[in-house]
Automatic annotation (TrEMBL):
GO cellular component: plasma membrane
Residue ranges of the TM segments: 27-49, 61-79, 99-121, 141-159, 205-224, 236-257, 269-288
Localization, UniProt: Cell membrane
Any GO molecular function: G protein-coupled receptor activity
Swiss-Prot/TrEMBL keywords: Cell membrane, G-protein coupled receptor, Membrane, Olfaction, Receptor, Sensory transduction, Transducer, Transmembrane, Transmembrane helix
Domain G-protein coupled receptors family 1 profile: start-end pairs: 41-286
Classification via Pfam families: 7tm_4
Family: Belongs to the G-protein coupled receptor 1 family.
The protein, known as: Olfactory receptor
Record organism: Lynx pardinus (Iberian lynx)
PANTHER family noted in UniProt: OLFACTORY RECEPTOR
Positions in coiled-coil regions: none
């Protein structure tokens, strides 16, 4: 009987945003705009960094290009399925696809957390030890730190996924979110999940909270070490974009993962923020506040031959 129960659930039903077809159609257009904007903005940053000799040789922009790639991957894990579900009344996802989505969500998400922490360290070295910056943040070290971020994300996601697939699922099968994530999925297990929830909260919650504390401590140390008002103004200008990205990404993640798996009505909206909106906003945050990136984009535009001529 127990063996059969674990095989009952072969599909999960994802929660929608509305039961009205006209509303779903409107949301489809809106989220399609978000997704296309995410691709355009992040690909533009990646191409700009790769094509500009100065940006490509700078550790800061090398890390920024990797962040843009992670943002593309992160939004692609959930948004295409969300767009398809806006046009599908059933909103079904197969068990294997659900587990795969869960795995890649935590894989890329944790890798981005670690990479943002690396970027904070990069800013600390650049501002507090400027004479040794190029020596410390060599391309070799940057590649190692990026690889370590991916490896950390892989290990974290593997732990989360193994803990999930070991649970029996025999119904119900309605996931209370628009994608498969650990908190709503394990609530559907046909067994007591208290210990599993504690393990997962200690894993995801610890990573997100500790990374956020390290980031805030790093930026605070930068401001404390700089005595002059002009120096602090420049430091705030340099780190301001990083702080905005950190707040947009880590705030919702800590809210979702650093607490017991109880459900709140705002969970879906919070999930939209860090799954869909933040990957779209990151290119805008970095380009609007960065003269070097805007200048490189202008050069790229001019070389493309697409400038308007009177």
């Amino acid at each position: 009987m127990d063996e059969n129960q674990t095989e009952v659930v072969t599909d999960f039903v994802l929660a929608g945003f509305s039961q009205t077809p006209s509303t779903e159609a409107g949301l489809f257009v809106l989220f399609l705009f978000f997704y296309v904007s995410t691709w355009v903005g992040n690909v533009l940053i990646m191409v700009t960094v790769a094509s500009d000799n100065y940006l490509n040789s700078s550790p800061m922009y090398f890390l920024l290009g990797n962040l843009s790639f992670l943002d593309l991957c992160y939004s692609t894990v959930t948004t295409p399925k969300l767009l398809a579900d806006f046009l599908d009344n059933d909103k079904l996802i197969h068990y294997d696809q659900c587990i795969a989505q869960l795995f890649f969500l935590h894989f890329v998400g944790a890798a981005e957390m670690f990479l943002l922490t690396v970027m904070a360290y990069d800013r600390y070295v650049a501002i507090c030890r400027p004479l040794h910056y190029t020596t410390i943040m060599s391309r070799g070290l940057c590649c190692v730190l990026v690889a370590a971020s991916w490896m950390g994300g892989f290990v974290h996601s593997t732990v989360q996924t193994i803990l999930t697939i070991r649970l029996p699922f025999c119904g119900p099968n309605h996931v209370d979110n628009f994608f498969c994530d650990v908190p709503p999925v394990i609530k559907l297990a046909c067994t007591d999940t208290f210990v599993i929830e504690l393990l997962m909260v200690s894993n995801s919650g610890l990573i997100s909270t500790s990374s956020f504390v390290v980031l805030v401590s790093s930026y605070s140390t930068i401001l404390v070490k700089i005595r002059s008002k002009e120096g602090r103004r420049k430091a705030l200008s340099t780190c301001g974009s990083h702080l905005m990205v950190v707040t947009l990404f880590f705030g919702p993640c800590i809210f979702i993962y650093a607490r017991p798996f109880s459900t709140f009505s705002v969970d879906k909206m919070v999930s939209v923020l860090y799954n869909v909106i933040t990957p779209m906003m990151n290119p805008l945050i970095y380009t609007l506040r960065n003269k070097e990136v805007k200048s490189a984009m202008q050069k790229l535009w001019d070389r493309s031959g697409l400038t308007w001529k009177k």
